[in-house]
């Protein structure tokens, strides 16, 4: 479970995230929708431990992302819409790398990354190139 409580991020005088709170239940897939500058990427960067919040907390399966980052990061994955340095690499390859990085590779590597993609309910699209 992911629990975000009272998340705030300020860059100088600019308020990027304003007291955001929500829960993501186990087994559910959620997405952020909003215009550019709404705080979607900032929120994800905080949730994954890439940047610190100004205020508030994020817990991943009970682990605080700022205080117990190593354990929390074992429980979450994030694939942004644009990935620098991955031009022309297929989704299957990216999922394979993600599986390997997350420690799932021992049971899924023989599927070449298709395991994670099929786990999400996709099929042949795994072999298409990312754009």
If you had to describe this structure to a student in words, what would you say it looks like?
It is a single chain. A 4-stranded antiparallel β-sheet has the order 2-1-3-4. A hairpin with a 2-residue loop joins β1 and β2. It is an alpha+beta fold and 131 residues long. The two termini are 31 Å apart.
Furnish the topology, listing elements before pairings.
Layout: E1 2-11, E2 14-24, H1 40-47, E3 55-60, E4 63-64, H2 69-73, H3 91-102, H4 105-108, H5 114-119
How many E strands? 4
Q: Cα distance, first to last residue? A: 31 Å
Low-confidence stretches: 104-114, 121-131
| Inertia-based shape | globular
The secondary-structure class comes to alpha+beta
Percentage beta strand? 15-25%
C-alpha Rg (nearest Å): 16 Å
Number of helices: 5
